[in-house]
Every structure is written in C-alpha cells, then in structure tokens.
Design goal:
Helix content: 25-40%
Strand order of the largest sheet: 2-1-3-10-4
Shape: elongated
Number of strands: 10
Order of helices and strands: EHEHEEEEEHEHEEHHHH
Radius of gyration: 33 Å
Oligomer: single chain
Strand content: 15-25%
C-alpha cells in the first residue's frame, strides 16, 4: 500500500454509459465515514484524470496502459446501431455491418471504437461528441454505432436501436494507477468483486489476521526448534507436558481400567 495517510474521501471517476450507483450504495453502507465522490469524465480524459491523481479509481473503457494502470475487466457491452424508428433496418431484430454498408454512419470524435476501417458511407463531417451525433441521427441524416449503454444514455422517443452482431465491442473495467493501490482502493475492489463485508479476503479481515499472528509471537507454523523447546518446557507447554510432570512427581494417579471377565453365576 502507498501513502501513510488516507484521504478524507474516495474519488471515483466514470465514463459515459457506466452507472456506478449500485457500487456507490454499497460503499456508503460499509464506509459511511468516508464520502464517495463521483466524477463523470469523457472517455478520452479518463486516463489523464487518473494519472494526475484527480481520482483514486475509475470505471473506464478498455484498453488502458497496463504499464501504468491496473485494471479489472467487468463486462463487455452489446454494440448497437441507433436509427430513426421508421428506418428500414428496424424491421430486423439484428443487423450486420454488411447491412449498413450503404448507410451514412457517423463517427464522432469521442467514438469509443478503434475502427481499422470505419463501416458505411462517410458522413459530411465528424460530430464533436456522441450527443451531437445522436441529434443528427434524429434529423434522419445518418446512423450511429455505439455501445448499448450509450444508446440508452442518449435515448429519444423518435429513435431506436438494433444489435450489430459482427461489430467491435467495448469492455468496461475498474482501473487505477498501480502504484497508488491504497487501502480505500482495495476496499472498492472488494465491493466491485462482490465480496461480503466479512470476507476473509477483505482488507479489515486481513489486518486482523496479521495482528493476531503478531500477538501470537510472529504467527505461522512452529519450527522444529520451537517444537523441541516446547516439549522440554513444562511451564508453557500445555496438557502433554502436564501429564509428563505428574508422572515424574508421582502425583495425579490415574484410575486403572477395570478388568473385564466372565460374569459370575448367581447361586
């Protein structure tokens, strides 16, 4: 762990489409004295925010720089195409990239997909944001491919979406600077991984176990020398040593087991 003093709050960044409410609720129940501060950040700015120490951890989209960040992959999203409700593609339950080859597809500057060759017909311009692209889709100018969570985030009554079965997918992970793995980060990792408050893998339980071992004289299994010393010491060895001491002093006579024989016949 790094840092001798823990911050007075835990700052959690999250990118658009991620809903951290369920994890925040568990945090507030388990650590009510340490406020959780949520910081929404655009996808492209999330790594810089974490590098600058402006957040302790964050829900980000993969990939991340694994030479600097630790990351726990959480889930992979379905990719969908957003279209007007009366568009021809809405007649199908799902589509392929080939089905969209003749459609104008927007690729906003904050697109989360790293396309080798963007599909569809190129639009007249690249929208600055996904929200801007959604507005253009609503104007029936073109279509937009996004993770399903972003389609839900920018939901409009006049738009709908369909899964694109062969499109790239976006994965979400919990990430943080590896060298800044604090106790609070470990606590949040436990929450995200579904550990219970009394889990033996939790930070508090691990500390209690470590303290118990120190109080026991260092903990761990006794060495051969330790076992030999315990056998030779009558004052600290427990029941086996006690029986040996009584045998030497003649005290503590033990009752002899009764002999078993044939039952006598009554006359």
């Amino acid at each position: 762990m790094t840092g001798s003093q823990e911050p007075q709050s835990f700052r959690l960044a999250y990118v658009p489409g991620v809903t951290p409410a369920k994890w925040a609720k568990i945090w507030n129940e388990r650590l009510p004295d340490i406020p959780l501060t949520l910081v929404q950040v655009p996808d492209a700015e999330a790594p810089g925010l974490l590098r600058a120490g402006e957040a302790d951890a964050g829900f980000v989209r993969l990939p991340v720089d694994r030479t600097f960040f630790s990351a726990i992959p959480l889930y992979t999203e379905t990719t969908v195409v957003v279209a007007p409700k009366d568009h021809l593609i809405t007649a199908a339950d799902e589509v392929t990239l080939a089905d969209l080859a003749d459609e104008v597809l927007f690729h906003p500057l904050d697109d989360v997909f790293d396309w080798d060759a963007p599909p569809g017909e190129a639009a007249f311009e690249r929208p600055a944001t996904t929200a801007d692209a959604i507005e253009l889709v609503a104007a029936d100018v073109g279509l937009l491919i996004v993770p399903q969570s972003l389609a839900r985030l920018h939901h409009r009554r006049d738009l709908t979406y369909r899964p694109v079965v062969d499109a790239p997918q976006s994965s979400v992970a919990l990430s943080w600077p590896e060298e800044a793995t604090t106790d609070l980060v470990e606590d949040f990792i436990g929450i995200v991984r579904g550990r219970t408050v009394n889990s033996t893998r939790g930070r508090t339980a691990a500390k209690n176990d470590d303290q118990g071992r120190r109080a026991d004289g260092g903990g761990g299994r006794p060495t051969a020398a330790g076992k030999s010393q315990a056998r030779s010491s009558g004052s600290s060895s427990g029941k086996p040593a006690g029986r040996t001491a009584r045998a030497r002093t003649g005290g503590g006579k033990q009752a002899k087991p009764a002999k078993r024989g044939k039952p006598r016949r009554r006359s």
